[in-house]
C-alpha cells in the first residue's frame, strides 16, 4: 500500500518501502534530520542499495519468517535489531506479518556524536551492519518512542532526545574502529581538541575562519578542508550545532529569559535564535520551554550560522 506524503519522502529506505507491499502506520520528521516510521508488512520482497543514510530497524511483532537473502538461515523475531549503515546493500524476503519501527539518521549525526561523545574523528569509527541482533537498551528506547504521540510537539521533542541517545548507544555498542594507516589529511588530535574546547568555552563569540585556523596554526583554506575531514561538516555548521546544543540546556533554567538564553548561547538576537531553533526542532524556544523538554542534545547538520 502506498504511504501518504510525509517529510520523509526523500529518504531512500523509506521510499523503497513505500514502493513495496509495506503499510505505513505513521511517520514523522523529528528535527535534526531524524525520521521515524512505523510499518507493517507481509509476504513481500524488498532491497536497499547504498541509501546514503543510516537506518536502525527494530522488530516489534512477528518477523519469524523474514530473512536477508545472503543469510537465509537467520530469521527475525520481536525485539530483534537490524542496523543498515549508509553504504549498506541488502535484499530481503518478508514472510508472515511483521510490525517494525525504523529510525533514519544522517552520517552527520554519527560525526557529531563521534567527536562530542567519544573524542574521535568520524572516519575513525564505522557503524556495523547488524542482522537480528539483541540489544535490550536500544529495543527499550524504540518501544518508548513508539509509545509517544509524534504529532504533539513536546512528545516529538522527547522522541528527538531519545533518537540522539540511540545514536550514542549505537556508536558505543555497534561501532567498529577503522584502521588509520591510509588516512590522509585532517586536523591533528591536538588541533581538533583546541578548536572544540575554544568553541565550547566561548559560546557567545563569533569567530571568523581565520580565528579558528589560527588555533590550529593553519591557513584558512587548509583549515577549512582539514576541519571538514575531521569533523564531518564545515566549521560554521559545527558552531551552530554547539550554539543550539547549549541553548537547549539553558532553556531548562527558567530564571533566564529567552533573550538571555539567546545571548548566552551566542545568537545575534532573539529572533535569530527563534528562527534557528524552529528550523532545527520544528517548535519555538518558548514552546520548547513550555513543554518542559529543554535538554535536547543536538541539531541538524543542514543548519548554517
Automatic annotation (TrEMBL):
Keywords: DNA-binding, Plasmid, Transcription, Transcription regulation. PANTHER family: ARAC SUBFAMILY (PTHR46796:SF6), HTH-TYPE TRANSCRIPTIONAL ACTIVATOR RHAS-RELATED (PTHR46796). This is Transcriptional regulator, AraC family. It holds the Pfam family HTH_18. GO terms for molecular function: DNA-binding transcription factor activity; sequence-specific DNA binding. The keyword Magnesium does not apply. It comes from Cupriavidus metallidurans (strain ATCC 43123 / DSM 2839 / NBRC 102507 / CH34). SMART domains: HTH_ARAC. Residues 193-291 form the HTH araC/xylS-type domain. It comes from the Bacteria.
Amino acid at each position: 500500500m502506498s504511504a501518504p506524503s510525509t517529510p520523509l519522502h526523500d529518504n531512500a529506505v523509506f521510499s523503497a518501502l513505500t514502493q513495496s507491499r509495506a503499510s505505513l502506520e505513521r511517520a514523522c520528521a523529528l528535527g535534526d534530520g531524524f525520521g521515524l516510521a512505523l510499518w507493517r508488512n507481509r509476504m513481500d520482497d524488498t532491497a536497499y542499495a547504498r541509501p546514503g543514510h543510516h537506518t536502525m530497524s527494530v522488530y516489534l511483532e512477528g518477523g519469524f519468517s523474514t530473512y536477508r537473502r545472503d543469510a537465509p538461515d537467520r530469521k527475525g523475531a520481536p525485539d530483534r535489531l537490524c542496523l543498515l549503515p549508509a553504504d549498506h546493500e541488502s535484499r530481503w524476503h518478508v514472510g508472515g506479518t511483521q510490525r517494525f519501527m525504523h529510525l533514519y539518521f544522517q552520517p552527520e549525526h554519527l560525526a557529531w556524536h563521534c567527536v562530542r561523545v567519544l573524542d574521535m574523528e568520524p572516519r575513525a569509527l564505522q557503524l556495523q551492519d547488524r542482522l537480528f541482533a539483541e540489544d535490550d537498551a536500544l529495543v527499550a528506547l524504540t518501544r518508548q518512542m513508539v509509545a509517544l504521540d509524534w504529532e504533539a510537539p513536546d512528545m516529538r521533542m522527547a522522541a528527538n532526545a531519545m533518537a540522539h541517545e540511540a545514536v550514542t548507544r549505537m556508536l558505543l555498542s555497534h561501532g567498529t574502529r577503522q584502521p588509520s594507516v591510509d588516512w590522509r589529511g585532517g586536523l591533528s588530535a591536538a588541533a581538533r581538541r583546541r578548536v572544540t574546547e575554544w568553541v565550547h568555552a566561548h559560546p557567545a563569540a563569533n569567530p571568523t575562519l581565520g580565528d579558528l585556523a589560527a588555533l590550529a596554526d593553519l591557513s584558512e583554506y587548509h583549515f577549512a578542508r582539514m576541519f571538514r575531514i575531521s569533523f564531518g561538516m564545515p566549521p560554521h555548521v559545527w558552531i551552530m550545532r554547539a550554539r543550539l546544543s547549549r541553548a537547549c540546556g539553558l532553556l531548562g533554567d527558567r530564571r533566564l529569559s529567552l533573550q538571555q538564553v539567546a545571548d548566552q548561547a551566542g545568537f545575534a538576537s532573539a529572533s535569530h535564535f527563534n528562527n534557528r531553533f524552529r528550523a532545527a526542532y520544528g517548535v519555538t524556544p518558548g514552546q520548547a520551554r513550555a513543554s518542559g523538554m529543554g535538554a535536547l542534545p543536538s541539531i541538524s547538520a543542514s543548519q548554517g550560522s
